[in-house]
Amino acid sequence: MATAILRSGIRSALRGGASAARGSPATKRSFSSSSSAQEEAAEAAKWEKITYVGIAACTALATYNLSQGHPHHDEPPAYTYLHIRNKEFPWGPDGLFEKKDHH
After folding, report:
1. pLDDT surpasses 60 at 23
2. What 3-state DSSP class applies to 41?
3. The pTM of the whole model exceeds 0.70
4. Is the pLDDT of residue 54 over 70?
5. Measuring CA to CA, which residue among 81, 97, 77 is closest to residue 89?
6. Which residues share a beta bridge with 89?
7. Which residues are CB-neighbours of 100 under 8 A, at least 6 positions away?
């Protein structure tokens, strides 16, 4: 490992990379665009505004959707083959979490 680091340092020194990096100020890397700092700040501000508008729109849409009622369906018919119980439950005639009015 130490030899690999040493070799890398030697190669860099031979190419002039180490001396150039020490003597010159750090250069800015430009990837896909070479815009100025003002343009980058304007772009960031634009996307910040778009984000806030999107958050407000999603919140308004969710509030509207949740405030609307939803349809309640009628009870299904009481078929004879449903809820067949041959033996009482220890806690009563209904299921553990059922609560029905018994007449």
Report:
1. no
2. helix
3. no
4. yes
5. 97
6. 92
7. 94
